[in-house]
Amino acid sequence: MTSNKLSRPKNQIRILLLESIAPSARDALLSAGYTNVHEICGALDKAALIKAIQGVHMLGIRSRSQLTTQVLGATNTLVAVGCFSVGTNQVDLAAASALGIPVFNAPFSNTRSVAELTIAEIVMLMRNTFKKSVNVHKGRWDKTAAGSREVRGKTLGIIGYGNIGTQLAALAESMGMRVIYFDRLDKLSHGNAESTKTIDEVLAKADIVSLHLPEQPDTNGLFNEVRIRSMKKGAFLINNARGSLVDIDALANALKDGHLSGAAVDVFPNEPKSNKDIFESRLRGIETVILTPHIGGSTEEAQECIGEEVARKFVEYSDVGSTMGAVNFPQVQLPKGTLVTRFIQVQRNEPGELGRLNDLFARHGLNIVSQHYQTNEHIGYVVLDVCGAVPNCVDILKEIRQLAGTIRARLLNRV
């Protein structure tokens, strides 16, 4: 984000926000001095997206826009991507990393919203509320206690004890439920929640199973026919995580033949691209299933927090070079600095790259007052501060960009 002289002025940094991102994002950017903000309400297909991002420096999306290798490689101006959501599976993270583009998200902002929806679904499933509500709307007065149970004393099994899973556990325990969980990593139990060694142990004991896992190759189709059939007969399944986790046909069969008493599903393997498209699924019409249109994190409070969180990460990356919160980049927290010329390089993580960069500064007789350097498997992220003004800073930047290992470089001149 540099011009021929110094750092690119904030009003020249073009930011594009897609998919009706909450106004809090725009407000946060404007208050930080980033006035060149453009918004598009919906998601864009590949061709339209490639056209829209030409000349864009920072791009904000939610869950529908797909940033593939082809899309990311179609412009040389993009320096940062913000996923205004928890997940980042809509972005080819490896491709973004190879291009020196950090990808930020909001892993905590909507956790409460998802946990609250899950609690509400647990109560509605146990009370068979959804079916009774539909019947009353149709004029049928089906007042009976048969099949309607309290959640107190029941066992909730949580698969994935992360940010959402832990909040859900706390809420469930406050309602008198017993909580057991499985996570691939060792996690400290909160409250009275009990860890299990396997998923199968959870399925054998839980009256309700709630999924809170990311979308990864090893979680794709995790709840298949065998796993669903290993759940307790009469149990309930809730998926408010990722649509790829559950085999929908297997779930539909288990519901129709009575192996499961009900389910609540908010995410699906194939979802409509817009609100105008028809949703198709074998789960439609099964009266013991609560279907919602991917609204787990769609509360006003959550969207406001997400907008503020990701916009703040944009500002910190652009203003000072901080990469904290980037899911595909080395994590570097940086001070704002005073009266410094800051050089930032994204380099290939190969032997000798940092030495070559330092040699370049030594040849120019520049004294480095601070250096921040972090790597991951593929890239290194280097921030070098030189005290005071550097008259030939643009020439030095050009030399950094010409180094064989440089992926991307930029200049922040605060003098």
TrEMBL record:
Keyword Disulfide bond: no
Chemical reaction(s) catalysed: (R)-2-hydroxyglutarate + NAD(+) = 2-oxoglutarate + NADH + H(+); (2R)-3-phosphoglycerate + NAD(+) = 3-phosphooxypyruvate + NADH + H(+)
Keyword Oxidoreductase attributed: yes
Keywords: NAD, Oxidoreductase
Any one GO molecular-function label of the UniProt entry: phosphoglycerate dehydrogenase activity
EC number(s) on file: 1.1.1.399, 1.1.1.95
UniProt xrefs under Pfam families: 2-Hacid_dh (PF00389), 2-Hacid_dh_C (PF02826), ACT_AHAS_ss (PF22629)
Pathway: Amino-acid biosynthesis; L-serine biosynthesis; L-serine from 3-phospho-D-glycerate: step 1/3
Start and end residues of each ACT domain: 342-414
GO biological process, one term: L-serine biosynthetic process
Entry similarity comment: Belongs to the D-isomer specific 2-hydroxyacid dehydrogenase family.
PANTHER family referenced in this protein's UniProt entry, alphabetically: D-ISOMER SPECIFIC 2-HYDROXYACID DEHYDROGENASE CATALYTIC DOMAIN-CONTAINING PROTEIN-RELATED (PTHR43761:SF1), D-ISOMER SPECIFIC 2-HYDROXYACID DEHYDROGENASE FAMILY PROTEIN (AFU_ORTHOLOGUE AFUA_1G13630) (PTHR43761)
NCBIfam families in UniProt: PRK11790.1 (NF008759)
Job description of the protein: Catalyzes the reversible oxidation of 3-phospho-D-glycerate to 3-phosphonooxypyruvate, the first step of the phosphorylated L-serine biosynthesis pathway. Also catalyzes the reversible oxidation of 2-hydroxyglutarate to 2-oxoglutarate.
Entry protein name: D-3-phosphoglycerate dehydrogenase
Origin species: Candidatus Endolissoclinum faulkneri L5
Taxonomic lineage from the root: Bacteria, Pseudomonadati, Pseudomonadota, Alphaproteobacteria, Rhodospirillales
Gene expressing this chain: serA
